[in-house]
Write a structure and sequence with these properties.
The complex is a heterodimer of chains A (114) and B (109).
Chain A (H helix, E strand, L loop, with lengths): L3 E4 L2 E4 L5 E7 L5 E8 L3 E8 L6 E2 L6 E3 L9 E3 L8 E8 L9 E2 L3 E5 L1
Chain B lengths: L2 E3 L3 E5 L4 E8 L3 E9 L6 E6 L3 E5 L2 E6 L4 E6 L8 E9 L3 E4 L3 E6 L1
Parallel strand pairs in B: 2-11
Antiparallel strand pairs in B: 1-3, 3-8, 4-5, 4-9, 6-7, 7-8, 9-10, 9-11
Classes of the chains: A mainly beta (114), B mainly beta (109).
Chain lengths: 114, 109
Amino acid sequence: IAGITQAPTSQILAAGRRMTLRCTQDMRHNAMYWYRQDLGLGLRLIHYSNTAGTTGKGEVPDGYSVSRANTDDFPLTLASAVPSQTSVYFCASSDSPSGSDTQYFGPGTRLTVL
Amino acid sequence: GQNIDQPTEMTATEGAIVQINCTYQTSGFNGLFWYQQHAGEAPTFLSYNVLDGLEEKGRFSSFLSRSKGYSYLLLKELQMKDSASYLCAVREGDYKLSFGAGTTVTVRA
């Protein structure tokens, strides 16, 4: 059982380029999330999806977009990357978005924008 | 939004006990989580509290006081492998999970 996978593991990107970070889960979880983690700031929610076909904005959505065409996949797109988007990006999923339901995290993507 | 505060760093000796405090301010509290994150790895779930009191899980315990906006994570019988960052996260409403900046615990022999 893979759980949650993310690709790529790391990427160096020129400013202005478009980039899609991939996230796939095989647990049939309804809810999925994208976070960025920066030193001293902790994990911050970028976008989320409570179920396939729906998405919502988190705390820091500007410059990012997501789609949820099916249950398993939740790609994050940077339309035109900027250096401030240099960060470690974690995808997570949970069976439902409420209650004691635990969020499970993928291994992360380390993105550097130059 | 909400503020979640926890100490930046703590150091303790192998075999000792360490208590990591977390204070928060929120308008719609719906549960508090603790996660462990080793350097370069993903966060992993440790504990969940939604009612006041202590939840014990082996060497780890978590306490919650909703009226005080306060939680702590207690790590007993510290082992070298417990060296990691510990993240306090508060759920507000149905989905939003807000994280503190994390506490880096260093266990020394």
